[in-house]
């Protein structure tokens, strides 16, 4: 362990040697924040992969609209917006906004930023964004006004403009630099290691408090906490919740926790196999003790038991859906109705003469997944359901195996509403044609409601649509929800105004500072 700590210290020391202002004891105007993820390329173009999330978190790029810390959709680079007719949206831009190359933000630059995403001939064409926006034409009315026309009514259009990959960039930047409009300028990226930003003196909004910020990418949560406890980072974002119990009473350390849109849930193979029987799926729901998971795996601060796919912090949550109670007696009753019997007395139920045994897989990049899966295994075993576990490095091999029918329960953790809109999770997973429908699930009513939800602009009518969709999911369990994740960070008390965003979009804000 001493050798491991020495290597970590040497690695961090190399960073400080190259970029000395990161030593917060010497420079009160800078912070170092340890995060699990970051860019894998030296020029993180927001149009590609997850780069938009990273540059948004870093305070480098901004979008026309954003989701605020109360999960409300509000103007950002846009001054205002209006819906002219079912297909037409008009956006008026803020005045006096500068890109980091000191050129002004105008309607032409915004059009260029979005066209590069949705033009199939573009080198950074983004099919996901194209589908979200569904734009037919973009018209520059004048320097400050754009008019967007969609191919069909799109109730989620404004929310799509809050997606970090739609960030406005200076056309002068092209492909060799990220010239955004945020409070911080991107100075350096060491792929998979760090992002270094400095204050942008020409920022249009509240002047940034900090001179410099480094987002240090430390994927291993134990290493991340070791760096924090060694005093080499000011903030450790997203760490194992049980570490909070160990350091909560440490001098000058605060534990910050806030609910997010992230859901821990099982994909359930409903097309075939034992879980094609809805009674067995419902029995599993009753067999799982969600409160025990939250208290044991998440230390009571890392989440809350889930009833619906959407958390209570989202206005789309169906408040009538409470978490399924832990009721082994009800689980036993449903299993008996499904024909499950322990005929040989070994404690494992059989159906049609075969043991009721499930393949349960997850991946290791999020620290709470593996212990959650292990605890669920014990809870199912108490009800006579056997299981075999497998942990992979990434989620994609699990999805492929589930499509083949080799996996019965696939434990994942998703942000259910990255832009605050309910359509994302529904049409990504639950509709018949969804790209991530690895469960073999099909429900005509849900498909019809999802299509209707995309085009219904009236808020009350749209809310009723998504309430009904949540009820269908609750009743049929093509996914089994476990808990809504709260993000937990360890923060030294010299850090000011560090906030956790519910959609995990923003870390480095103008208000972030240090005493």
By DSSP (H or I, 4+ residues per run), the number of helices equals: 15
Strand percent estimate: 15-25%
Low-confidence stretches: 1-26
| Helix content range | 25-40%
What's the overall average pLDDT, rounded?
92
Number of strands: 21
What is the SS-derived class?
A: alpha+beta
Termini separation comes to: 33 Å
Q: What global shape is seen?
A: globular
Cα gyration radius (Å): 24 Å
Main beta sheet strand tally, sense and closure = 11 strands, mixed
Describe, in plain words, how this protein is organized in 3D.
With 515 residues, this protein is an alpha+beta fold. Helices cover 29% and strands 24% of the residues. The strands form 5 sheets. Strands 1, 8, 9, 10, 11, 12, 13, 16, 17, 18 and 19 form an 11-stranded mixed sheet that branches. A hairpin with a 2-residue loop joins strand 4 (78-85) and strand 5 (88-93). The two termini are 33 Å apart. The model is unreliable at 1-26 (pLDDT under 50).
SSE layout and pairing:
Elements (H helix, E strand, L loop, with lengths): L1 H17 L11 E6 L15 H7 L7 E3 L5 E3 L2 E8 L2 E6 L13 H12 L8 H7 L1 E8 L2 E6 L6 H4 L23 E7 L3 E6 L12 E6 L3 H9 L5 E3 L4 H6 L5 E16 L9 H10 L2 H7 L6 E3 L22 H10 L12 E2 L2 E2 L1 E7 L5 H13 L4 E7 L3 H8 L5 E7 L7 H8 L13 H12 L3 H18 L2 E14 L2 E2 L16 E2 L1
Parallel strand pairs: 1-10, 1-11, 16-17, 16-18
Antiparallel strand pairs: 2-3, 4-5, 5-7, 6-7, 8-9, 9-10, 11-19, 12-18, 12-19, 13-19, 14-15, 20-21
């Amino acid at each position: 362990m001493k050798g491991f700590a020495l290597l970590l210290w040497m690695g961090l020391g190399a960073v400080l040697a190259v970029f000395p202002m990161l030593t917060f004891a010497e420079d009160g105007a800078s912070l170092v924040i340890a995060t699990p993820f970051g860019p894998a390329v030296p020029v993180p173009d927001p149009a590609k992969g997850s780069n938009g999330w990273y540059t948004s978190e870093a305070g480098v790029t901004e979008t026309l609209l954003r989701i605020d810390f109360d999960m409300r959709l509000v103007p950002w680079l846009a001054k205002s917006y209006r819906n002219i007719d079912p297909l037409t949206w008009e956006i008026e831009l803020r005045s006096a906004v500068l890109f980091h190359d000191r050129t002004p933000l105008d309607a032409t630059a915004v059009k260029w930023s979005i066209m590069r995403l949705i033009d199939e001939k573009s080198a950074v064409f983004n099919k996901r964004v194209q589908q979200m926006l569904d734009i037919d034409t973009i018209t520059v009315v004048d320097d400050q006004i754009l008019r967007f026309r969609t191919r069909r009514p799109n109730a989620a259009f404004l929310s799509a403009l809050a997606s970090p990959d739609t960030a406005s960039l200076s056309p002068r930047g092209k492909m060799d630099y990220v010239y955004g409009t945020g409070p911080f300028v991107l100075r350096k990226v060491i792929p998979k290691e760090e992002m270094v930003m400095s204050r942008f003196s020409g920022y249009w909004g509240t002047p940034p408090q900090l001179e410099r910020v480094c987002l240090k990418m430390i994927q291993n949560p134990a290493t991340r906490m070791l760096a924090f406890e060694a005093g080499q980072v000011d903030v450790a974002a997203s760490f194992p919740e049980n570490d909070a119990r160990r350091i909560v009473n440490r001098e000058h350390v605060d534990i910050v926790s806030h609910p997010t849109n992230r859901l821990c849930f099982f994909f359930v193979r409903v097309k075939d196999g034992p879980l094609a029987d809805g009674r067995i799926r419902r029995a599993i729901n009753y067999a799982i003790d969600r409160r025990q998971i939250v208290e044991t795996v998440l230390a009571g601060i890392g989440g809350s038991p889930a009833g619906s796919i959407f958390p209570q912090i989202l206005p789309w949550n169906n408040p009538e859906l409470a978490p399924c109670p832990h009721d082994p007696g009800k689980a036993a009753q449903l299993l008996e109705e499904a024909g499950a019997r322990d005929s040989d007395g070994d404690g494992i139920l059989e159906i049609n003469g075969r043991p009721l045994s499930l393949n349960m897989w997850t991946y290791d990049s999020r620290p709470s997944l593996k212990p959650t899966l292990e605890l669920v295994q014990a809870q199912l075993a108490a009800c006579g359901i056997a299981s075999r576990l497998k942990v992979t490095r990434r989620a994609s091999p699990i999805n492929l195996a589930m499509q083949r029918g080799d996996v019965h329960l696939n434990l994942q953790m998703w942000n259910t509403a990255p832009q605050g809109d309910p359509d994302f999770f529904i049409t990504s997973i639950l509709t018949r044609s969804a790209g991530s429908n690895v469960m073999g699930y099909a429900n005509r009513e849900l498909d019809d409601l999802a299509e209707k939800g995309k085009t219904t602009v009236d808020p009350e009518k749209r809310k009723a649509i998504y309430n009904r969709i949540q009820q269908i999911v609750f009743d049929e369990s093509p996914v089994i929800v476990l808990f809504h994740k709260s993000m937990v960070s360890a923060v030294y008390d010299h850090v000011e105004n560090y906030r956790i965003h519910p959609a995990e979009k923003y870390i480095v804000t103008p208000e972030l500072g240090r005493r």
